[in-house]
Amino acid sequence: MDGTKRKQVGLVLAADVICYSNDATNVANTIFSALVDGGRAVVVSAADGRRFGVEEFPGALRDAGLDVHVTKFAADDGLTTTVEESQDAELFTCVGYCAEGYNFLRFDITKPSSE
Length: 115
Prior knowledge:
By secondary structure, the chain is of the alpha+beta class. It contains three helices and five strands. It has a five-stranded mixed sheet with strand order 1-2-5-3-4. α1 crosses α2. About 10% of the residues have low confidence.
């Protein structure tokens, strides 16, 4: 916030950071700047139109020069299930939104190596 350049990191973890339409681009650019080449980020966000800008996030990440894989998780009668196969199914139970019909997205992001 004060303009100080911070040391880049190898891993960024974030949740619920996209709430407004311009957040997709701002968060994508922040992640790109924060990561070292080859670094990784994991971002979790509400899905299905519950947050503005989430739909634009994958495109904003690619525009920033990042690779992204998106996994959609869904609640089913208060129990956890995944829309696609994942080793992180327990992640859903930690999010705290286990209401029926509530879905969230996990963005697995990689900053390509410049080599």
